[in-house]
Amino acid sequence: MDTAYAYSVLMSIKHGLLALLAPGPKYGYQLKAEFEAATGSAWPLNIGQVYSTLQRLEKGGQIEADGVPDDDGRVVYALTPSGRAELADWFGSPIAQESRPRDELAIKLAMAVSTPGVEAREVVQAQRSQAMSSLQSLTRLKVTVPEEDLARVMVIDSLIFAVEAEVSWLDRCEARLRKARTTQTPEKEAVQ
Amino acid sequence: MDTAYAYSVLMSIKHGLLALLAPGPKYGYQLKAEFEAATGSAWPLNIGQVYSTLQRLEKGGQIEADGVPDDDGRVVYALTPSGRAELADWFGSPIAQESRPRDELAIKLAMAVSTPGVEAREVVQAQRSQAMSSLQSLTRLKVTVPEEDLARVMVIDSLIFAVEAEVSWLDRCEARLRKARTTQTPEKEAVQ
DNA sequence: CGACACATGTAACACGTTACATGATTTG
DNA sequence: CAAATCATGTAACGTGTTACATGTGTCG
After folding, report:
1. Which nucleotides of D are covered by protein (CB under 7 A)?
2. Residue B4: what pLDDT?
3. Is A130 in contact with B103 (Cβ distance < 8 A)?
4. Do B102 and A126 touch (CB under 8 A)?
5. Are the C-beta atoms of B165 and B157 separated by less than 8 Å?
6. How far is the first Cα of chain B from the last one, in angstroms, to the nearest whole number?
7. Domain ranges of chain A
8. SS3 A116
9. What is the pLDDT of residue B187?
10. Is the pTM of this model over 0.85?
11. Cβ <8 Å between A15 and B107
């Protein structure tokens, strides 16, 4: 293999489509619909992206067009053994911590505290109020989806948990910043 | 602008480098070192990527090479007004919820529950034990960095908070799955 | 000398994203 | 008929990632 990325390889869509193809062959529009039925309101999926991804999956030998277009011009794709293997591997092994994208917010705050002229606490507060408002829309959204729809509920929960964690983290940062200012530079704030 | 992405635009490195250039001109290796000094052990930065990104920033008019290579072949880059403006905008506005990458784990679990033949609870448990072990390494790592090093402490905290939230979420998913199995299909598990 | 760190750079690729073109079918 | 929806596809770009080439300086 030449494609051995050490971390930060995003393949959510690819794997998601593979999973949707597991029960049986499907076509593009159907995949978009089913993908959004589960992860839906959270992460809409541009239809163009479905076809791009299908193309790349076919090129990679993980899926193949099921013969000719079906009854009415719809092109149906099916998993190949290779694709089925990759899917099994995806489900079978946990997602590595190192394979996750860099957290832009963490980087931003790290940079904010070490960049002169930037008030890190303002950054924290702006982010916090934004997080609180998304928390509200998420809880509003959650009551609209029935408990039985496991996939959707779980996805929304994951967003809620992530935002809540972000708020807690921001609060801790606030505390750290407050403490650092009062202990380190007691009267430096008077300057300028 | 032609580049108006609606969501999922990753620009952590770009903005990170811009921030590092704010105090004054710097060269590639130095930027790598300083970037890792803050976000360090969490997200190492390939040196090649620094040069790629610098090149793209220069092409985009956000930075420019400071005349000739300095005393010893080192090429120093500085912010342009445009770059400074973009940086101010980055610090000044919160990171949008929609601009975050899709959570692969959430998608995976959503797919797991709707894919026949896949035991979602096994996926949950595998992920959970992996999360617990990364939580351990993170807490081990945290004690090695001094409290005064705000940036690094905050970055590690952000990882810890994220993993803790993941564990809580996984536990909730476990509960939901257990409940769904006992209420929905009481004896279906006997089949096959 | 040989190994290693410092330093710059390029080429190639994978993935995500959108804009655009094209047609068939349905429906007010 | 016109508009909306269904359906497929392509071209282009931005960002992240790595592998590789190249050279300098230092130190055992």
Report:
1. 6-20, 24-25
2. 55
3. no
4. no
5. no
6. 58
7. 12-99, 104-190
8. coil
9. 52
10. yes
11. yes
Chain A contact set for B94 (CB, 8 A): 126-127, 129-131
What distance in Å separates the CA atoms of residue A109 and residue A71, rounded to the nearest whole number? 55
Question: Closest Cα partner for B49 from A102, A22, A20, A140?
Answer: A102
> Any idea which residue has 């890190």 for tokens?
A120
pLDDT digits (tens, 9 = 90+) for B134-154: 999 999 999 999 999 999 999
User: Is B116 in contact with A150 (Cβ distance < 8 A)?
Assistant: no
Instruction: For residue A116, list chain B residues with Cβ-Cβ distance below 8 A.
Output: 22-23
CATH number of the B12-99 domain: 1.10.10.10
Q: Which two structure tokens, joined as six digits, stand for A27?
A: 């076509």
State the Cα–Cα distance between residues A60 and A83, nearest whole angstrom. 9
Q: For B101, which DSSP code? A: P
A5-54 residue pLDDT tens = 666 678 999 999 999 999 999 999 999 999 999 887 789 899 999 999 99
Q: How far is CA A20 from CA B49, B114, B185, in A?
A: 34, 8, 22
Nearest nucleotide relative to B10: CA against C1': D15
Q: What is the DSSP letter of A43?
A: S
DSSP, collapsed to helix, strand or coil, labels residue A13 as: helix
Query: pLDDT, tens digit, for every residue of A157-182?
Result: 999 999 999 999 999 999 999 998 77
- Backbone CA torsion sign across B107, B108, B113, B114: positive
Q: Which amino acid is at B75?
A: V
Q: Is the CB of B48 under 7 A from strand D?
A: yes
Least reliable range by pLDDT among A149-163, B1-15, B107-121:
B1-15
The whole-angstrom distance between B132's CA and the closest CA on chain A is 11
Which of B26, B86, B98, B107 best probes binding to A when mutated, by most A CB atoms within 10 angstroms? B107
Is the CB of B14 within 7 Å of strand D?
Answer: yes
Q: What is the pLDDT of residue A192?
A: 40
Give B42's pLDDT tier (boundaries 50, 70, 90).
confident
Which sign, positive or negative, has the C-alpha torsion A56, B103, B152, A134?
Answer: positive
